Batch of 3 targets.
Target 1
Amino acid sequence: MAMVQTVTGHTVIGNGGAWTDPNGIPPARIATACHFATVFWLFWDEFHRPPNQAEVLKMGNAQLLVTSMIANGTRKDSPLIGSLNLTAGAVLIFVDQGRVARHSCVAIAAQQVGGYNQAGWWSAGGADHAYSTHTTNQLLWGHLGNRNKVHKFRDEQQWYQLYEVPEAYAKMIVRGAAQG
């Protein structure tokens, strides 16, 4: 439950679509993309403080870090009835056919997620370089051969599998990257 409090208590990361550590020398501007936000919150919750620039740079590419979490996740399928249920604090990852993380966010309730750059991933809009929340009934599930996959709004050419990564595994990966 701590991860939920970290995410909902720190919805603003950076300014103008980028995060900068004021103590970084020289300060680097890092886009507050979805994966960066997910890793930022995981770090903050694991170490009880936000990361500094040196730690962010040491962890490396946030997309690669989130992609490495997929192996610890559980594939989620379209529910037969109702909305998809998640475990609060878990990381939800949208995975393409190449097994690369294309979007990530955090479950802040059983049927609600919070994250950055969520425009197009949900039927009810979203925001670019800003925080937004969505309910799992806003996922864009397919039908027939793609019934257990989702797509981005107005793009039924690319389909994504959903993986739910438990909070403990996601934090373990971030901890390893930060200390490695």
Target 2
Amino acid sequence: MTSTALAFTKGEWIVHIRHGIGRITGMDTKELLGKKRVFYVVKTESVQYWLELSEVHSGRVRPLADAADFRKALDLIASEPQKLEENSRRRLFDIEMLYSDGTLLSRAKLIRDMNARAYQKYVHVNEKRMMDNLKEQFIEEWSIVCALEEKDARKELNDALEMSCADLQPKKPIF
């Protein structure tokens, strides 16, 4: 096995760009296309997946951030949001690029900016779903890293988001 095999250990928490927070539960070898391949077995709240060792450094998976990273992320979330693109195709492309980056700070920026847009305008259901998913992943990771209750993390995140929207005009009610 290569040094890649030592990237994670059983019981370690990781963050996958699409699956979110998961825990390494072991390793498995599977034969695919006539070749034996080694995988980490990863269990999330909703799914179990196999992460090939060669994918560990692909940018789609990372170890949990640390407490200092969350302090920076919260400062970023509480700061003035940047306006997202008005054109829906370009906006979704920009959102997907930041989402795919997968770093805690790029996710924090997305949470802040998507929240500000939702505060000012009615957003598409897919954007709302993505924003809610980002918030939940942020809260879950933060709770694990800093041993916080999820309700406390959620409150602090919401306080930071309120601070970032303090100077914005809220959307007008439909009725």
Target 3
Amino acid sequence: MVGSDLVVRAQHGDRTAFTGLVDAIGGRLHAIAFTVLRDRDLARDATQQTLLTAWEELPRLRDPDRFEAWICRILVRNCHREGRKASRWLPALPGRPGSDPVVVDGSGSVITRDRLERAFRRLNLDQRLAVVLHYYLDLPPAIIADRLDIPVGTVHSRLRRALHAMHAAIDADERTEVPVTSPPARIRQEAVR
């Protein structure tokens, strides 16, 4: 938790205090942005824009004790902006994540992580944020609601819908997997000759 005295000093233009705030919370903001956006460049842009906005808007923050919730809301807006920008400008390429069948090779944990990653990428940004804040940062729904400035019921709803969507995506992926099989006997015999 960031000390309110540091926030107050930064509100009055103390660059050293703001640097202390960035040191205290910058890494966490970037981790949240990366986990939500799944792209290092987009996460870096969202984090940098968040810190720039925080510096510019910090004098208007009414309650220094609410700094973390306030900056988290700014990050959420910037993640949305970067996510929309990426989906608008990136071409729809064949082989995008989730479009290729999974080849089962006995690497259970790798396959499980891959399935979870593809399912997570299919969530909308609001659902991703709820999942990241709850399961990655281990925040309770009441704190998430405060950070995102939404009702607690909405947090529960987003989490429930996100988990349902991820289960459905994983089930769909499992139905489309192509098992690895050995070549037909005729091909094996020709390869031996």
